[in-house]
């Protein structure tokens, strides 16, 4: 038994078969109209313009897609170039600043500094008791052990170890540092030592209560020093209190170690003859 759907399909095909000639006629007419339109100049121009716009759009998309692959590489190259330029700028700025600071410390060097070598502090060990400095001048620059290190403000310390291009400096603010000093008004002598951990305060020791030391006096290195020449500023007496046999003397140091960056190394060498006499036995040898 045929369904209605099957009947409809059969009717459609019978219609197509019956009117095939008309359908071909419509198809030929449509093709003819299309060919006639293609022969018109306006239509050809429109098609050409449309093609060009499509081509441009495709080319742009292709270019954009290609640029994505090279964008990361270009950014990396630009970053490296900027890094090189920035590093060069920093080197030039640092060189100009170093030259300016070195010239300034040379220009302000006092007469008591004598012959000296300018050096920069390149490292520092911070401690409550054992501070240490490293400067960028060594044996190749004429630096030797036991040379005095100072600034235009005063004494910094003493060279204790030297390599080819660097030197280690034992600063005043180290518990193992001591230097002989004398006051400028009463000529009171004593030993300067650093005890309390404050970078600007030290002690003047071995000052007998019979001395005439005054508050406010300035202290300088004395002739008794085994490494520093006479007359280098060390500090100022700010407080004096009496103990049993000696005074307790507080001294404000002349050098601000918290901002220390450039130093002068005195090229004057200690007198070995003087040192040998001081270290020789106090009791003369017995005559036979």
Which band does the percent of strand residues land in? 25-35%
Helix segment count? 4
Distance between the termini: 158 Å
How many strand segments?
12
- What does the largest sheet look like? 6 strands, antiparallel, barrel
Q: Assign the CATH class of the largest domain.
A: Mainly Beta
**Low-pLDDT segments:** none
What order do the strands of the largest sheet run in, or round the barrel if closed? 1-2-5-4-3-12
> Helical amount among residues, as a percent range?
25-40%
Shape: rod-shaped
Order of helices and strands: HHHEEEEEEEEEEEEH
Number of domains: 2
The average pLDDT score comes to 81
Could you outline the blueprint of secondary structure elements for this entry?
Blueprint lengths: L3 H15 L1 H19 L2 H67 L8 E10 L6 E4 L12 E4 L2 E9 L4 E5 L6 E6 L5 E5 L7 E5 L12 E4 L11 E10 L4 E7 L8 E5 L5 H8 L9
Antiparallel strand pairs: 1-2, 1-12, 2-5, 3-4, 3-12, 4-5, 6-7, 6-9, 7-8, 8-11, 9-10, 10-11
Verbal overview:
The protein has 288 residues and is an alpha+beta fold. It is 38% helix and 26% strand. The protein has two domains: 43-107; 113-271, Beta Barrel (Thrombin, subunit H), CATH 2.40.10.340. The protein has helices spanning 4-18, 20-38, 41-107, 272-279, and strands at 116-125, 132-135, 148-151, 154-162, 167-171, 178-183, 189-193, 201-205, 218-221, 233-242, 247-253, 262-266. Strand 7 (189-193) and strand 8 (201-205) form a beta hairpin. The model has no long low-confidence stretch (mean pLDDT 81).
């Amino acid at each position: 038994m045929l369904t209605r759907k099957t009947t409809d399909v059969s009717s459609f095909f019978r219609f197509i078969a019956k009117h095939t000639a008309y359908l071909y006629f419509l198809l030929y007419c449509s093709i003819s109209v299309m060919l006639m339109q293609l022969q018109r100049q306006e239509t050809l121009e429109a098609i050409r313009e449309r093609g060009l716009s499509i081509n441009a759009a495709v080319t742009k998309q292709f270019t954009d897609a290609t640029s994505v692959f090279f964008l990361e590489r270009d950014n990396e190259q630009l970053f490296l170039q900027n890094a090189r330029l920035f590093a060069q700028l920093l080197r030039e700025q640092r060189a100009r600043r170093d030259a300016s600071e070195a010239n300034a410390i040379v220009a302000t060097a006092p007469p008591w500094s004598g012959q000296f070598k300018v050096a920069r502090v390149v490292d520092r060990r911070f401690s409550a008791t054992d501070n240490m400095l490293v400067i960028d001048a060594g044996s190749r620059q004429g630096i030797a052990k036991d040379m005095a290190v100072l600034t235009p403000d005063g004494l910094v310390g003493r060279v204790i170890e030297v390599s080819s291009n660097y030197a280690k400096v034992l600063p005043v603010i180290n518990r193992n540092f001591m230097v002989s000093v004398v006051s400028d008004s009463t000529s009171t002598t004593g030993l300067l030592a650093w005890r309390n951990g404050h970078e600007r305060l030290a002690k003047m020791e071995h000052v007998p209560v019979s001395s005439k030391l005054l508050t406010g006096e300035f202290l300088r290195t004395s002739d008794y020093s085994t490494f520093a020449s006479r007359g280098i500023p060390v500090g100022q007496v700010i407080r004096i209190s009496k103990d049993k046999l000696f005074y307790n003397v507080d001294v404000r140091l002349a050098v601000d170690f918290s901002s220390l960056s450039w130093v002068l190394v005195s090229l004057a060498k200690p007198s070995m003859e003087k040192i040998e006499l001081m270290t020789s036995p106090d009791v003369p040898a017995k005559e036979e």
